Amino acid sequence: MLTASLRLNTRTPVAPVNPRLFGSFVEHMGRAVYTGIFEPGHETADAAGFRSDVADLVRELGVSIVRYPGGNFVSGFKWEDSVGPVDERPVRLDAAWHSIETNRVGIHEFAAWAASAGVEVMQAVNLGTRGVAEAAELLEYCNIPRGTALSDARRANGADEPFDIRVWCLGNEMDGPWQIGHKTADEYGRLAAETARLMRFVDPRIELVAAGSSNADMPTFGSWERTVLTHTAGLVDHISVHAYYEELDGDAESFLASAVGLDRYLEEVAQIIDEVRAEAGIERPIGISVDEWNVWYQTRFNEVDKEPLLTGEWNEAPRLIEDEYGVTDAVVVGSLLNSLLRHGDRVSMANLAQLVNVIAPIRSEPGGPAWRQTTFHPFERTARFARGEILAVDVSGAPVVETQKYGAVPVVDAAATRDGDEVVLFFVNRSTTDELALSVDIPDVAGLALVDAETLTVPEGLDRHASNTATEPARVGLVPLAGVEVSSGTEVSSTVSVTLPALSWSIIRLAATSAAAPSASSPSDASDATTSSLGDTRA
Fold first, then answer.
1. Is residue 38 a contact partner of residue 46, using CB atoms and an 8 Å limit?
2. If DSSP codes are grouped into helix, strand and coil, which group holds residue 11?
3. Facing residues of 487 across strands?
4. pLDDT of 58 higher than 70
5. What 3-state DSSP class applies to 273?
6. DSSP conformation class of 305
7. Which strand ranges, in their side-by-side order, compose the sheet holding 92-94?
């Protein structure tokens, strides 16, 4: 069995937990909207045609903010098509995804759905085929209360009060040659700056996100950020990062170390931000908006699934990148969430891409059920229980796993948060073969007791590719984590001892003895004020 000793830094928190770290993304792509969140005639559909079963899962997932309507889609989007009487809206070709867009769901419908689901809207503007004026006009339509042609048009279309959207993306992946209206860094940077300036004239309360590189492997990565920020620093509040990971050629070790790649990506972007701000003498802070991140099997998409987009017929809501996620994928998603927490001092927002059907934690079938993918569970638990302040975790003494892509990486990936007398630990065991015995020192927090401990790992009798499906929606999920012990070695510290299963994501919740009442999902009561544990109750 592998062993490791970790230590939390309780004296110097990384940053407060920002609820916007737990955002998601709904693009007019594939079945994300149509038969995803929206399906009139479905047995659970509400009066507006939105699926209540999907909305219930969205609320359970704990999503805080949702980016809309794209993505590649937005670079050809005419926002005017998506407002006004539904039966009068034009049907358009969506060249980005070789689809038919009916515009049955538009800005009004999505804003109403978001309000009912309890999520903030993060609106993207088209800087591919359109520009400064159209972006400012959309902002006026959405946010100005009344008294102008566009604000009064919104009211005439049924929304008397403004949508009051605060976060706006200035285009999408403009560095990518696949993008409609692809631009050089100078072309985009100047356009983004002029758009930002006019949008701030219209509504100075808004936050703006400049489009960073599409991924860290782009040949222009780094130089793109420097150029774009040179144009926009002082005008924007965030710059975007897009990060997708997949298992290639059976290299599970590198895949399970994906969070190391995200760590490095975020740290390099943060350094560029600091350098540009210093060179320009800009005091306005600039956060990193990881507004697209997930596991996505892009190789499979590019080699197989992309063909219908190039040669097929134009269809409404075709099935696109509906990846079915296994145990390994869920563990990687859990580690990527840990990375976002570890960089909570620089990451200002993050959006799991996407929300329903398209590389998503939630799946649905037309006229059928909706269910949780394996990746749903680490996201839901992290969004629910990561509260208060983010604590750094020292894993320097842990054993390592050798990887082809990242070299030697710690076998354990960890994050922690503290909210008053409550401490929450998030762990990944990257080893596909060995359990990991952990001892975790929590200084300056005495008298902790166990509230709950859960893990997601390979279910008995299955393998690491096991997934949830429409017919078996609960095959992979969270189970109690056995044998967790919590002790107070001194009056000013606590220690947690736990054995993590091979290939697992785990969450351990602790609280001061007086507050350590188990939740409804807790498998047993916290027992002793000095030493508490969970017995072997794992399914």
1. no
2. coil
3. 495, 531
4. yes
5. helix
6. I
7. 92-94, 99-101, 315-316
Give the CA angle between residues 309, 314, 316 to the nearest 5°. 105
Judged by DSSP in three states, 318 sits in coil
Tell me which of 27, 80, 101, 292 is the catalytic residue. Answer: 292
Other C-beta atoms closer than 10 Å to the C-beta of 109 total 21
- Under a CB-based contact definition with an 8 Å cutoff, are residues 254 and 311 in contact? no
To which H or E segment does residue 465 belong?
A: none
Cα dist. 93→74, 78, 322 in Å?
13, 11, 21
Q: Give the pair of three-digit tokens for residue 237.
A: 């509040």
Domains of the chain: 2-10+389-533 (2.60.40.1180), 18-385 (3.20.20.80)
**Active-site pick, 173, 253, 422, 454:** 173
Euclidean distance between CA atoms 37 and 18, whole angstroms: 26
Q: Is the pLDDT at 526 greater than 70, yes or no?
A: no
* Whole-angstrom distance, CA of residue 436 vs CA of residue 429: 7
Cα–Cα dist 259/39, whole Å: 36
SS3 204: coil
Q: Which two tokens stand for residue 405?
A: 């892509």
Distances (CA, A) of 349 to 219, 270, 345: 25, 14, 11
What's the burial of 201, exposed, middle or buried (CB within 10 Å: 0-12/13-18/19+)?
exposed
Is 402 catalytic? The answer is no
Q: How many CB atoms neighbour CB 259 within 10 A?
A: 25
25: left (phi over 0), alpha (psi -120 to 50) or beta: beta
Paired tokens of 277: 């701000």
What gap in Å lies between CA 444 and CA 387, rounded to an integer? Answer: 18
Tell me if residue 479 falls in helix, strand or coil: strand
**292 tagged catalytic:** yes
Q: Which tens digits make up the pLDDT trace of 78-133?
A: 999 999 999 999 999 999 999 999 999 999 999 999 999 999 999 999 999 999 99
147: phi then psi, degrees, rounded to nearest 5: 95, 0
- DSSP per position, 46-91: -TTSBBHHHHHHHHHHT--EEEES-SGGGGG--GGGGSS-GGGSPP
